[in-house]
Amino acid sequence: MRAEPEERLDPRAKLLWRLTGVLQSVPILVGGAFASYLLVRQAPVYLAVLPLLGALGVAVLSVFVLPTLLWRRWRYEIRPFEVDLQRGLLRVTRTLVPMARVQHVDTRRGPLQRRLGLSTVVFYTAAGPNEIPQLAQKTAAEVRDRIAELTQSRDEL
Amino acid sequence: MSSSTVGGLAKERRLHPAGMLLSALRTVRRWLGVAAFPGVVALINGEFGMRVLLLVLLGVTLLGVLSAVWGVLSWRATTYRVSGGAFHLKRGVFQKSERSLPLDHVQSVSTVQGVVQRLFGVVEVRIEAAGGGGEPEISLPALSISTARTLREELTSARQASLDTFEEAAATVLRRLSVQDLLLAGLTSGQIGVATSVVFGASQAFDRLLSRDLAQRISEIILPRTVYAILLFVLGVALFAWVLAILGTVLAHTSFTLSRSADGKYLCIKRGLLKRHEATVPLARIQAIKIIEGVLRQPFGLAALRVESAGFGAEEGVSTTLFPLLPRKEVETLLRAAAPRFAAPLDDLEPLPARARRRYALRATLPVLLVSTLLAVFLFPWGFITLLPTLPAALYGLLRYRAAGHKLVDERLILRFRHLARTTVVVPGKRLQSRGYSISPLQRRKGLATLEVEVASGRGGAAFRLTDVEDSQAANLIERLGSNTAATEV
Q1: Is there a single domain that holds both residue A29 and residue A84?
Q2: In a domain, A1, yes or no
C-alpha cells in the first residue's frame, strides 16, 4: 500500500477548529442548561443534570479533543498527475483526483480564517468540489497556482 | 449542406404556425387542470344548476379566446437564429428575453412528438446545454420535421466541423425492442411499488374531496369487513397498479430503437407510443454504463441498460435508458457495437472476502432488529411479531454480499452491488473524476475498506461505492487505475 500523503495542514487549523467548536457549543450548552432547568423540579437532581452534563461533554470534545484528532489525520500531497487527500475522524477516507480531471481551482477565506491568516483551496472536477482546508495563506496560494499550472500543462499535451 | 442554407438559418426564424395552437392548448390545459377536480366533484354531488352551467360555459369560451390570442402573440414574439457560432432565442410577450447558447456548449439535441404535434407533422426540439446556471434545456415546441433536422445538423455539426454527418439513412440500427419484449419489460418493470403508492394516494385524495356523505356510501359498498375482503382489496389495488406499470412502460418504450450514427459519434434513441421521443447521445459524453437486473428480471437473466452521461441527467428516468430490456448474455455484444469503450466481459468478478459476509448480514439486520426489539418491549406479547422481518432482512444482506464484486479489465473498472436490483457499473479509468477508499474503525480491524469512485453525471456527479473490499485489493485497484490514467495522459 502506498505511503500516506506528505503534507499536513497549517497547525493554526487546530486553533480555528477550536474557535468554531466554541461557537457551536454555545447553543448546545444553552439547550442543555434549559433542559436541566425544566427537569430540576420534576426529577431527582442526578437525573436533571444529565442534559447539562451531556452538553458539556459534547462541548469539551469539540473544543479540546476533535480538532487535534482531525488535524493529525488530515494530509494532502500535490503530485504531477494527481492530488492525494486523506481525512476523516473515525472513518478515514483517501481520495485521489487526477490532474487531468481538474477544471478549475480557487482559494477561499472566511472571516475567522482571515484573522488567523488561513485559507481553503477548492478545486473542482465535473463531479463536484474537493477541498484542502486551513492552509497558511501563502501555502494556499502556492498550492492553488501549482494545481492550476499542472492542469494547464495536461491540457496542452 | 450548401452555404445558402447556413445563411438562411442566420436570419431570425419563427416556429411552425402550429406553435400558436400548441401554446394556446397548453394554457387551456393548465387552467382546466386547476379547475377540473373540484368541478367533477361538484358535478357528482349535483351542485350544478342551469345558470351555473351557462356561467361555466362562458368562462371556458373566454379562456379559449384569451388563450388563442396569447398563443398568437407568444408565437410572434418567439424567434431563433443560429449565427456567430451561437444559438439565439428571443422570447416573451411583455417581458422580452434573449438567450444565447454557444454551439460548443450544446450537449445533445432531442426531439419529442406528442399526439397533437403528430397531427400537424411537427416536433418539439429540445436543446440540452452543458452545465452552468439557468435552465439546462431550451425547448422549441413546434418545428416542422425537416426544419428540425436542419437545425439539428446545424447545432451538432459545428462541434465536429464536418457538415455531412447526421444522415438518418446511414445510421445503423443496433437493436429494436420487440412487442413481446416490450410486454415482458412492462410485466417485470418493478414499478409496481411506485404505481401502488400512486393508486393509494389517488384514492386518499378522492376520499378527501368527495363529500362525506358520498364517501360513506361508497365505503359501505366496497370497504372490507373481513380479512379476506381486505386481502382482496389489496390484491385488486396491486393488480391495478401492475396494469398501470405495464401501460406506463408500453407508452414510454414502444418501438424502442437504438442506433448508431454513420460517423460512430452519436447514439440515437427513438421510443414512445403516443409521444415519440428521439434523442441523440454523443458517445464522447457517456461516463458510465449501468446494467440493472431488477428483482423480477434477474431470475430470467434479463437486464436493462442505462447510461450515466455528462449533461444528460436533467431529465431523470427513461431519458437515460439505453435499452429497456435484453438478455444479460447479450449485453456485452450490444455494448461492443454501441459503445465499445464500455464493452467488457461481465462475469467472473472478484468476490468480497468471506469475512465481509457477516458484516453484510448484520448491516441489513441491525436497524430492523433495533426497531422490533423496542416494539417487542413496549407492546409486550404482540410486539414479538415484529421480530419476524429480521429473517428476510438477514437474507437480503446475504444476497447483497453475494452480488457484490469488482474487476479491472483493460482499464475498465467494473463494480457490482445490489440495492434490491443487482447493478453492474462499467467505467473506463479515464472517466473517473476521483477514486479512493475509506476505512471505518470496525473495517480496519478486519482489514476491509469501502471503494469509492466518482463520475460526472448530469449537472453534478454520481458516486459508486462498494463496501467491504479487501483493503489491499482496494489500494491496489486505486493504484492500477492511476497508472493507467497517467500513462494515457502523457
Answers
A1: no
A2: no
Does A81 lie in the same domain as A52?
Answer: no
A22 inside domain:
yes
ipTM: 0.85
The H or E element containing residue A92 is: strand A92-98
Q: Cβ-count burial of B259 within 10 angstroms (0-12 exposed, 13-18 middle, 19+ buried)?
A: buried
> Which parts of B269-410 fold into alpha helices (H)?
331-338, 356-378, 380-383, 390-403
Nearest in space to B428 (alpha carbons), one of B416, B438, B413: B413
Q: Which domain holds residue A129?
A: 76-156
Instruction: Give which of B109, B101, B97 is closest to B132, Cα–Cα.
Output: B101
User: Is B257 buried (19+), middle (13-18) or exposed (0-12) by CB count in 10 A?
Assistant: middle
Element (H, E) at B230: helix B227-253
What cell does A67 get?
A: 480538532
pLDDT in tens, B114-138: 888 888 888 888 887 765 444 557 8
Count of the separate structural domains present in chain A: 2
CB pairs under 8 A between A and B: 81
Say which CATH number the domain at A105 has.
2.30.29
Q: Give the residue among B209, B87, B75 at the shortest CA–CA distance from B142.
A: B75
Tell whether A97 and A145 lie within a shared domain. Answer: yes
CA distance B389 to B369: 8
A91 and A46 in one domain?
Answer: no
Using a CB–CB cutoff of 8 Å, tell me whether B310 touches chain A: yes
Q: Residue A23 domain-assigned?
A: yes
The low-confidence residues of chain B, meaning pLDDT below 70, are: 1-10, 43-48, 130-136, 157-170, 190-227, 311-319, 458-459, 483-490
Q: Which residues of chain A have pLDDT under 50?
A: 157
CB contact under 8 Å between A97 and B490, yes or no, is: no
Q: Is B435 on the interface with A (CB under 8 A)?
A: yes
Same domain, A61 and A85: no
Specify whether A80 is located in the same domain as A65.
no
Residue B461, SS3? Answer: strand
The beta-strand segments (E) located in B77-225 are 79-83, 86-91, 97-102, 106-113, 122-129, 137-144, 172-176
The burial class, CB within 10 Å (0-12 / 13-18 / 19+), for B95 is exposed
Nearest-Cα residue of chain A relative to residue B450: A93
pLDDT for residue B420 = 86
Residue A113 placed within a domain? yes
Four-CA torsion B368, B369, B374, B376, nearest 10 degrees: 110
Q: What is the pLDDT of residue B169?
A: 46
A123 & A54 share domain: no
Q: Which CATH class is domain B3-166?
A: mainly beta
Do residues A85 and A25 both lie within one domain? no
Which sign, positive or negative, has the C-alpha torsion A42, A43, A44, A47?
Answer: negative
Q: Do A94 and B437 touch (CB under 8 A)?
A: yes
- Strand A92-98 and strand B97-102: the pairing is unpaired
The answer, for B220 touching chain A at a CB cutoff of 8 Å, is: no
Is B434's CB within 8 Å of A130's CB?
A: yes
Which 3 state secondary structure label does DSSP give B240? helix
Distance between CA atoms of B79 and B308, rounded to whole angstroms? 33
Pairing assessment for the beta strands B137-144 and B122-129 based on DSSP bridges: antiparallel
- The domain locations on chain B are 3-166, 181-253, 257-352+404-489, 356-397
By the 10 Å C-beta count (0-12 exposed, 13-18 middle, 19+ buried), B222 is classed as exposed
The full length of chain A comes to 157
